[in-house]
Amino acid sequence: MKHFEANFDGLVGPTHNYAGLSFGNVASLSNAALASNPKAAAKQGLQKAKALADMGMVQGMLAPQERPDLYTLRRIGFSGSDANVIQQAAKEAPMLLNACCSASSMWTANAATVSPSADTRDGKLHFTPANLVDKLHRSIEPLTTGRILTATFNDPHYFHHHSHLPEHNSFGDEGAANHTRLCKEYGHAGVELFVYGQEATNPSAPKPQKYPARQTLEASMAVARLHQLEEDNCVFIQQNPDVIDQGVFHNDVIAVGNQNVLFYHEQAFLNTQHKIDEIKRKLDTDLYFIEVPTAKVSINDAVKSYLFNTQIITLPSGEMVIVAPTDCQENPAVFAYLNELLTLNTPIKQVLYFDVKQSMQNGGGPACLRLRVAMNDMEVAAVNQHTLMNEGLFGRLNTWVDKHYRDRLTTQDLADPQLIIESRTALDELTQIMKLGSVYQFQR
Ligand SMILES: NCCC[C@H](NC(=O)CCC(=O)O)C(=O)O
Question: Where, by residue number, is the active site (predicted)?
């Protein structure tokens, strides 16, 4: 049996915009006034996904969500026709309208936590959609996320889908952005690293002072239980609260792992050495811990360039490659570090740069845009094949984007009722292209 790590990238939705919705996420706050380009955003994402498929990687796409979310706006008291709902909300509560228009489901690293069948007791691949309770605009994602995941991984013989965790701060869950898996080969049982920002039920435990810790230990442990992982397959690590306060709102802004490599900043975790020892004890293979010192890359440079929000992928040849945003090339300290990294004796042999600036300006790099799903060939064959990237899908999705997307969107434009019609027309067509069935509420 063959094993792969597939990447499922979020297709950027037609309402991609900069609304400054994510307190604690430096890029989101500082680009709040910018006009976005949804068409360019979607195309940048498709280019990256296609490039990985061309390198022989298993690459899929996850459909975006329906926005504006009129159901949430009606639930909070706006009424009348769809156009009335939007216009009333724009007048009386523009920030709530913005929250209901975000295309944030594009960052599929936050869609769910995934445990491959090699790790789980029932031998199935487990998915738990993230509840994303810390941010209003993201807390409205999980139900549809669950539907899209079920329509994509649609064979109950192989895939076990859970509901998202209870919608309360005690169970704040941000999905795979705070989860990474180390292993010898993708098909061998690995060690799943759950990185949390705070312990919700222990008031004396360390936590950030300025910005929110979105992920709780309680949530991470609940996911590990649901996914039927053994204690020996799990390591729970606390993120350093000081770096959360410097803008590291998810662990994937400061660390990334692949197979036997953990690439992380010196200041990423609490009790780092102790946790490394635990990983070594639980995973019997040659491990590379690539720790980047502050003297070479400051937290500020890491947050600006997204050095750690890179994808480390293993090519079919067995070589590892880093997929980085072009912002890493533009930052002298980070670019120098990446060039140096290639001369060190690690499995990482190449860095490829991609322009994903439309996403970066909202705090989402290459790693945020993808959900990793380690699978064997039988599981890949059980996936909805219309979601897998190839020449055909790439062509169809680009044509679809050209037909339906605007090339400029400001938060003022979110009050335009025409955007509802454009967005629904596009998504309705998309469900046919990707054979998803009626995953959206407007289709039900
Ligand atoms: N993994 C990357 C997630 C980035 C995402 N940004 C946003 O939602 C910004 C949206 C805005 O401000 O318009 C977040 O912070 O959760």
Answer: 174, 250, 368
- Give the burial class of 340: count Cβ atoms within 10 A of its Cβ; 0-12 exposed, 13-18 middle, 19 or more buried: exposed
Q: Which of 160, 179, 250, 404 is catalytic?
A: 250
Return the DSSP state at 197.
Answer: S
Query: Is 250 part of the annotated catalytic residue set?
Result: yes
Three-state secondary structure call for residue 337: helix
- Cβ–ligand 1 distance for 27 under 6 Å, the answer no
Find residue 61's DSSP bridge partners. Answer: 9
Position 33 scores a pLDDT of 83
CA 76 / ligand 1 centre spacing (Å):
22
Q: Of the residues 16, 18, 22, 173, which should be mutated to test ligand 1's pocket, given the most ligand atoms within 8 Å of the CB?
A: 22
**Amino acid 120: pLDDT:** 98
Annotated catalytic residue 368 = yes
Measured CA to CA, the distance from residue 351 to residue 312 in angstroms comes to 9
Which domains does the chain show, CATH number per domain?
8-67+102-443 (3.75.10.20)
Please give the C-alpha separations between residue 318 and each of 118, 162, 349, in angstroms, as whole numbers.
20, 33, 10
Segment 140-166 mean pLDDT: 98
* 229: pLDDT strictly greater than 90: yes
pLDDT digits (tens, 9 = 90+) for 235-281: 999 999 999 999 999 999 999 999 999 999 999 999 999 999 999 99
Is 28 labelled a binding residue?
A: yes
The pTM of the full predicted model, rounded to 2 decimals, is 0.98
Is 110 marked within a binding site? yes
